[in-house]
């Protein structure tokens, strides 16, 4: 799974370079999560996940508070959560998660971003079956053996634990996301290098230099869309 962590890290680094865009996306996601349940993360697991993710991206507290207060204030602004699936060069697979207040606009924009950059939209289910919904938690200052022992003592089963570049990466079932974090916090961990609920490909696809350039152009065009929250893919970026 090592390359999968690298892809997550590369995506995070790319987004960190576009702070205004990522902050806006998190503001929308926090608002939706807070509005769908209680605005308290201790009683709203969806909101808690989003806030944990936001922390790893250094989203300012002011943006978080503004989104939560907007939800508390009974804003009538509503968003639909929609997933699109499609293909890029050489059969590469892409999943696009969106939050939108205009379904027709979003569908048209996503389709155009695929089509104008060498890809095409697929039907629902055409791609997602090749990905696994996974919790990914990263910590520093521990070895893989130490992390495994800690999680075993907490009676938490995980899919895999890897140690790369001084970071221990834990891959777990989505419903173990908070349990893994709480186990580390109980052991003194205060910061996580990654805290994601993501879609990881079961197999990664290498592309030629030309196809990879085309693929990255397509993904950039999709991620630039206002309504797009997350983009997942199965390409082994090098």
Automatic annotation (TrEMBL):
Signal peptide: none annotated. Residues 79-235 form the TACO1/YebC-like second and third domain. Residues 3-74 form the TACO1/YebC-like N-terminal domain. SUPFAM superfamilies: YebC-like. Keywords: Cytoplasm, DNA-binding, Transcription, Transcription regulation. One of its GO terms (molecular function) is DNA binding. It is found in: Cytoplasm. GO terms for cellular component: cytosol. It comes from the Bacteria. Pfam families: TACO1_YebC_N, Transcrip_reg. One of its GO terms (biological process) is regulation of DNA-templated transcription. HAMAP family: Transcrip_reg_TACO1, Transcrip_reg_TACO1_YeeN. Belongs to the TACO1 family. YeeN subfamily. This is Probable transcriptional regulatory protein DFR62_1198.
């Amino acid at each position: 799974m090592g390359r999968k962590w690298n892809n997550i890290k590369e995506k995070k680094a790319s987004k960190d370079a576009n702070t205004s865009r990522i902050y806006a996306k998190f503001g929308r996601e926090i608002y939706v999560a807070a509005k769908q349940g209680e605005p308290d993360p201790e009683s709203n697991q969806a909101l808690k996940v989003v806030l944990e993710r936001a922390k790893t991206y250094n989203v300012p507290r002011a943006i978080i508070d503004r989104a939560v207060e907007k939800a508390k204030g009974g804003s009538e602004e509503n968003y639909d959560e929609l997933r699109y699936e499609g293909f890029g060069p050489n059969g590469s697979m892409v999943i696009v998660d969106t939050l939108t207040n205009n379904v027709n606009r979003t569908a048209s924009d996503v389709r155009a971003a695929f089509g104008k950059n060498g890809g095409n939209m697929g039907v629902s289910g055409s791609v997602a079956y090749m990905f696994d919904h996974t919790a990914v938690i990263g910590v520093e200052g521990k070895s893989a053996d130490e992390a495994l022992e800690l999680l075993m003592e907490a009676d938490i089963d995980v899919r895999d634990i890897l140690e790369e570049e001084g970071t221990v990466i834990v891959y777990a079932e989505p419903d173990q996301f908070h349990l893994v974090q709480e186990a580390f916090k109980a052991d003194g961990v205060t910061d996580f290098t990654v805290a994601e609920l993501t879609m990881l490909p079961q197999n990664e696809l290498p592309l030629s230099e030309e196809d990879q350039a085309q693929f990255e152009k397509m993904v950039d065009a999709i991620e630039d869309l206002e309504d797009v929250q997350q983009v997942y893919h199965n390409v082994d970026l090098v």
